[in-house]
Amino acid sequence: MKLSVIAITILIPLNALSDPMTPDALRTAAHDYYEWQKREFPVFASDQGFHAYDDRLADFSTSAIARRRAHVRDLLDRVRATDISKWSKDDKIDAILFRAQLEGSNFPDRVRKLEESDPSVYVNEASNAIFSLLKKDYDTPRNRAIAATSRLKKMPALIEQGKKNLTQPMRLYAEFAIQSARSIDPLLNDSLMTLAGDMNPTERDALINAKTDALRAIHGYADWLEKRLPTMTAWKPLGLENYEYMLHHILLLPFSAHDIAHLGEVELARYRGLEAMLPDPSLADPNPKRAKNIPANQQDFLKAYQSREEEMIQFLKEKRLVTIPSYIGPFLIRQLPEAFKPTSPGGFMNPPGVYDPDNSGFFFIPTYNPESRNFYIRAAIEDPRPILGHEGIPGHFLQISIGNHLQNEIRRHHGDTVFVEGWALYGEEMLLREGLYPPDSATAGQVLRLSRYRAARIGVDVNLHTGKWTFDQAVNYFMEGGGLDREAATGEAAGSAVDPTQKISYMTGKWQIMRLLGRYRDAKGADFRLGQFHDVLIANGSIPVSVIQWILLDDAADLEKATGLKLR
Question: Mean of the pLDDT values across residues 233-238?
């Protein structure tokens, strides 16, 4: 046995781990890493438009988790040890971005240990395993249903792995997992079965049996978690040091947690004050009764939502505010699956994946209810354009679609949430100021309220994860400071709790873009045009604004402050 281990060790080129990386070697390592991710996380690969592993789930055995963590850690150590001081500017940028991607994978393994602490990991793997096969017609319904059968058969074992792994579950995360587990039935019983029409009787029986066993396991998981809730730790914040590590080394932000929190306070005060300046401050609170037409049902609601997109695109073209490439596909409005409601009360956008040959995207919106107090439903009935612009064009869908077409593989794979959400929030106010919405209208008021509660998100995120606030304090802050109803506020707080730093992205990114816009305007002088700035900004895809500042203004100060590197 010892001889076998020694022989294997000799065959592995361990010296490669200590050799200095060249720019070409770094790009090769990055490519190999992306291929490794597809194999290790097949559900993620399906979601991103790569379908060679559609019959698989991730392996959550303790040995597989340990092996994955070691792989990321070793690669990160090698990148960290690389001296890039003599590299070209473009090569330095790629090295910094790839390191940030690895930091983003290593941090949950090193600090959060989600497989041991977050029961949602296993519910999300189950729901996304099916959802990723349903959302696009990339193959025949029968083939997708067969792949779903294979994944469903593996779900009881997945759930059992989860039970073994959850040695330190958090009660807050468990409560969200329970809600999602008990809401998954429509996804499997209704949505999935639409693919079964062309299956033969044997295949259909196999699908139904696998679905039945999977649902039994997932429901049992919810019961198992519920019984253990009283023994679980209620909440464990990241702490200041870990939070700031994320800011600097993953998001490449030059700010401290205090800086971010202060920005949130300033912007919250500003937008709350701007609401008060409206001739009728209630215009900032969406009211379906002010709408010209109230949809009769869910289908009418979806059609009405999507019908406003073309007028927005036409406005952007007439004003030359952004160039829409010819490869941009359709952006469709769909109903939000029940399983995703606990942490996505306003729905979510699903862009084309980085491997996806299909260029279409989707925005999943909550179930229609004209009597709902949910902010997003009320806003969508009165005027969906601010949120539609945020999620579609010129927002997420446009930016991420452009990013997917970058030739540089490292930059194509980067998904900086601060820039992505900042660009979308910036677009909401930009469209208002450029004249799409009448001043002092309900739509203008909605834009102010959207910025107001995005500013409130900062205070919640920073204070939750640095340990200053409880979950209830976060909900109350969204209601009092952000102006949200309790349902939306609870969902917002839940989103903050499960995804640290995501909620700071909107206002922080918008502020960075506004600062860059002013400096770019001064540098260009008479040659400045707003639409041209937008084009060169999002031509970089979804990389951090601190990097774009270096690209557009040759100013690496923010990036140096974030990384601690000397770049110039």
Answer: 90
